[in-house]
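Can anyone check this?
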Amino acid sequence: MIQVTRLNGKVFVLNAEWIKFVEATPDTVITLTQDEKVLVRETVEEVVRRVVAYHREVRLVSRISGESEGGGGHGEGRG
């Protein structure tokens, strides 16, 4: 999930998994997988940065979760 701001100033949280693409028209338009469009104040670059950060966090949490369930130790010098 990423936090973004509508043009009217209202902040909301958007499921980053649903983003199909982001474009500047010049306002930033986020098109979702359901073809719904959302106009936001953030720049395209900022939206991309937040999506990338979200995906990094998801992978990190997934990796940590896998290690805590005994899935770690893949030749990482442990032991």
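Reply from J.R.: I decoded it. Residues 75-79 have pLDDT under 50 and may be disordered.
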